[in-house]
Design goal:
The chain is of the alpha/beta class and about 425 residues long. It has 13 helices and 15 strands. The chain has helices spanning about 20-30, 45-50, 65-70, 95-105, 115-130, 160-175, 195-200, 225-235, 255-260, 280-290, 300-305, 310-330, 380-385, and strands at about 5-10, 40, 55, 105-115, 135-140, 185-190, 215, 240-245, 295-300, 335-345, 350-355, 370-375, 380, 400, 405.
C-alpha cells in the first residue's frame, strides 16, 4: 500500500552520545517504508512553532551519512526545553499553530526523541489530536542519560554515559595514587533526582582498579556527619580516596547540596534548576573538617557528548528505537512511547514494544533500594549486573585527519531551513 503521509521528527531535552542514532533509525526506516517526506523540526517543538524545519533528505544522502550521524554527538536537529500549555482545549493558539503547520506539510506521523519532558509533549499533542479528531499519530522515542523513564528497562544514552563514567573513574583513581599524601577527590555526576549514572561509577572496580570508595545517590539522604566520619576512618587505611557524588544528593531535610554551595540559578520551563556545585561544597567541608587536600571534579556535559567512547549496545538500541517508532506510527499507534525489554543478560538480548505515554510522562524512575548498599554508601551487585551489559563493545568513530568526523545541520542555498 502506498504511504501518502509525511513524517515530522524532532529531538528535545539534553542530548546524549547516541540520540542521533535514534534519528538515523527514524530516517532509515522511514525511507525503507516509502515515506514521501521526512521533515526534521529544528530546536524541537519550540522551533516547530516558529516554523523552523528541514527536509532531512537534503542533509542525509547516503549510508555513509547515516553511519556518521549515528556517531555524531549532541542533537543534530537542535533541541529545546519548551513546555506546551497545560490548557488543552480546542482553539488553543499554540496547539492550533502546530496542527495547522503539520496539516500544511501533510504530516501524518510525529516522532519526538527525548526524555521525561518530551514525553509530556507527546502526551499533550496526542490528547489534542483526540480532542480535535486529528488522525496524526504521535510517538515518543526514549532518550536520556539519566535513565529515569518509567516502564522501559533502560533508556538509550544511559549505557554510553555509564561507560564514559566508569572509564573516567578508573583514570581518576589511578591519578590519585601519584602522590604519597592524603587526598580526597569528589567526582560530581549528572542524573538529577535518580542515581543511575552515579551508581555506574561502581563498574570501575576490577582486577586493575579498586573502584570508587563511596558512591552517594539521591535516593539516600546525605548525612554529612556520618559521611565525614566514614571518610576519616578510611583515611587511616589509605591515602587517596575517590568519591562518586550524584548532583542531586540531598540532606535529610531535603536540601540539595548544590543549594548549600549557593550555585543554583537558571530554571527551565519545566521548573528544573541547573544542579551544579555539590562536589565543590563537599570538598570544602572535607578540607575544613579533616584538614586534607581535596579536589572537586565536575564531569558535566562530557557525560552526554563523549561519543568517542560510546557503547555499541547503546548505539544499536537507539537506532532500533528510532525504527520502532516509525513502525508503531505506521501501525496506527499514537500516544505511546517505545520501550526496551531485556530478554536476557548472558548473552544480553533485548527487544522493543510500546507503552501508554500517560503512564510515563512526568514520572521519575529511581534506583530501587535493593540495588543500594545504604550502610557502606555504594551499590549492590544487582546494580552492576543490571548496568554492565549496557556498556559492552564499541563502534569506532569515522576518523578524518586524526579526529572523529561529525555531520552538522548547516543551512545553505541548496540545503534550506524553512
Amino acid at each position: 500500500m502506498e504511504i501518502k503521509k509525511n513524517i515530522m521528527v524532532g529531538q528535545s531535552g539534553g542530548p546524549t552520545a547516541v540520540i542521533n542514532s535514534s534519528l538515523a533509525g527514524v530516517y532509515k526506516t522511514a525511507c525503507d517504508m516509502g515515506i514521501p517526506k521526512i521533515y526534521g523540526m529544528c530546536f524541537g517543538v519550540q522551533g516547530l512553532i516558529d516554523e523552523k524545519y528541514v527536509d532531512l533528505s537534503e542533509y542525509i544522502k547516503s549510508m555513509l551519512d547515516i553511519e556518521i550521524l549515528k556517531r555524531t554527538p549532541s542533537s543534530f536537529l537542535g533541541s529545546c526545553r519548551y513546555k506546551l500549555p497545560d490548557n488543552i482545549q480546542k482553539g488553543n493558539e499554540i496547539y492550533e499553530k502546530i496542527f495547522s503547520l503539520l496539516k500544511k506539510l501533510n504530516v501524518g506521523y510525529f516522532i519526538y526523541i527525548g526524555g521525561n519532558d518530551s514525553m509530556d509533549t507527546i502526551k499533550k499533542l496526542s490528547e489534542y489530536a483526540c480532542l480535535t479528531e486529528s488522525d496524526i499519530k504521535f510517538i515518543g522515542v526514549p532518550k536520556t542519560i539519566d535513565n529515569d523513564l518509567a516502564h522501559t528497562d533502560h533508556t538509550p544514552g544511559f549505557g554510553s554515559a555509564a561507560k564514559y563514567i566508569a572509564a573516567t573513574m578508573k583514570e581518576i583513581i589511578r591519578d590519585g595514587l601519584v602522590y604519597d599524601q592524603q587526598s580526597v577527590t569528589i567526582v560530581e555526576i549528572m542524573g538529577r533526582n535518580a542515581g543511575w549514572l552515579a551508581g555506574s561509577a561502581a563498574l570501575s572496580e576490577g582486577e586493575d582498579c579498586e573502584g570508587a570508595d563511596f558512591i552517594f545517590l539521591p535516593e539516600v539522604p546525605f548525612d554529612i556527619d556520618d559521611v565525614i566520619s566514614k571518610i576519616n576512618n578510611l583515611q587511616k587505611r589509605k591515602k587517596s580516596i575517590v568519591i562518586a557524588l550524584s548532583e542531586g544528593v540531598k540532606t535529610p531535610e531535603g536540601i540539595y547540596l548544590a543549594e548549600l554551595e549557593k550555585t543554583l540559578g537558571f530554571e527551565d520551563s519545566f521548573g528544573h534548576k541547573i544542579l551544579t556545585g555539590a562536589a565543590r561544597y563537599l570538598a570544602g567541608v572535607i578540607s575544613k573538617r579533616l584538614n586534607c587536600k581535596t579536589r572537586a571534579i565536575e564531569l558535566n556535559t562530557l557525560q552526554r557528548c563523549s561519543s568517542h567512547i560510546s557503547s555499541r549496545v547503546d548505539i544499536t538500541e537507539a537506532f532500533q528505537c528510532g525504527g520502532a517508532g516509525v513502525q508503531a506510527a505506521l501501525e496506527g499507534k499514537s500516544g505511546v512511547m517505545i520501550t526496551i525489554n531485556r530478554i536476557s543478560d548472558e548473552p544480553y538480548q533485548s527487544n522493543t514494544s510500546v507503552f501508554d505515554i500517560s503512564d510515563i510522562a512526568n514520572i521519575e524512575k529511581k534506583v530501587p533500594i535493593s540495588m543500594i548498599d545504604t550502610k557502606n554508601y555504594t551499590v549492590t551487585k544487582e546494580f552492576t549486573d543490571y548496568v554492565r551489559p549496557l556498556i559492552q563493545a564499541e563502534i569506532t568513530p569515522i576518523m578524518v585527519d586524526g579526529l572523529p568526523r561529525h555531520i552538522t545541520l548547516t543551512a545553505s542555498a541548496d540545503r534550506p531551513m524553512y
